[in-house]
Amino acid sequence: MEIDSDGNAPGDTLVLLLNQPGSVRDPLDLEFISKKVLKIAQTVYFFSYSFNQNDSAITDPKWQTPGISNHKTGMANRIPEFLTTPFQRARSQYPELAGVRIRLRLLSRPGRSTMTARPTFWSLFAGRKARTYIIRISPTVQFGNKTESLAVLPAEVLEGWFAHELGHVVDYSRYSGFGLLGFGLRYLFSPSFRRAAEFRADYHAVSNGLQESILRTKNFILHEADIPEAYKARIRRFYSSPEEIEALVQELAADS
Question: How many separate domains does the chain show?
Fold first, then answer.
């Protein structure tokens, strides 16, 4: 089964994902306009992770891991093994990413998302093969009223998280620099496009045999962990459900 950059595919799963109801708003709705202006600023931030020689880099084929830069102190730290190991496992299943520069950045403060993959801003102006990507990693996760280090998560769950983010990298690699700027705008402005983009990331992971890792992570978030309901609601709104992933696995098996 093939899908294009707009998320179109001949399978029922993706057709269902793209048929999201729209809404009509008053063009003079100032609150709505102010939110859109804010999202334009967020688009610039979306691609503003400039290249830093001190970032942790894990590149094919040697999986090198030099120190990363602490955003506040500039002191060198190292990406811990509990993150590098599942990253390596997930990346080893992506032959199309051989030779692609992907860097890990462990944030000094918790982020809104556990992990996010982005191209660095300046590499947007280079050729696709010269592009650098960063996977930003929040140092903690919220369980109920407690904030825990990512180190408490099962390795299989972290592997699934990385598998999903690497799927985004595969998706980004198909766009030109200007195409990626348009991608960022559509991702922030269009919920249906965002959901399709998240589905494509899972599609690439499943296509590379990482369906068990993806399912493990989704079931952990939605059914096992005491994660805040607001986070789960965002996952349900924009990300594929375990049932949709299982349907995708069946579709791919039928096409093979």
Answer: 1
Sequence letter at residue 108: S
Question: Is the torsion defined by CA of 215, 217, 221, 223 positive or negative?
Answer: positive
Residue 140's domain comprises 12-255
pLDDT tens readout for residues 37-82: 555 555 555 554 433 433 343 433 333 333 333 333 333 458 999 9
Q: Which two tokens stand for residue 124?
A: 């947007």
Is residue 218 situated within a structural domain? yes
Lowest mean pLDDT across 23-37, 80-94, 201-215? 23-37
CB neighbours of 122 closer than 8 A, spacing ≥ 6?
A: 50, 51
Nearest-angstrom CA–CA distance, 155 and 143: 17
- In terms of pLDDT, which residue wins out, 181 or 57? 181
Instruction: Kindly state the DSSP code that residue 109 receives in the 8-state scheme.
Output: S
| Helix, strand, coil percentages, rounded to 5, for the chain | 50, 10, 35
Q: Is 255 helix (H, G, I), strand (E, B) or coil?
A: helix
For Cα atoms 177, 172, 107, give the angle at the middle one, nearest 5 degrees: 100
Distance CA 116, CA 100 (A): 17
Encoded tokens for 248? 């995708």
The pLDDT tens digits for 200-219 are 999 999 999 999 999 999 99
| Domain assignment of residue 245, yes or no | yes
Q: Is residue 1 part of a domain?
A: no
* CA neighbor of 153 nearest in space, from 144, 163, 142, 145: 142
- Return the pLDDT at 10: 39
CA 110 to chain centre: 16
What is the signed CA dihedral for 27, 112, 106, 164, rounded to 10 degrees? -80
Residue 179, in any domain of the structure: yes
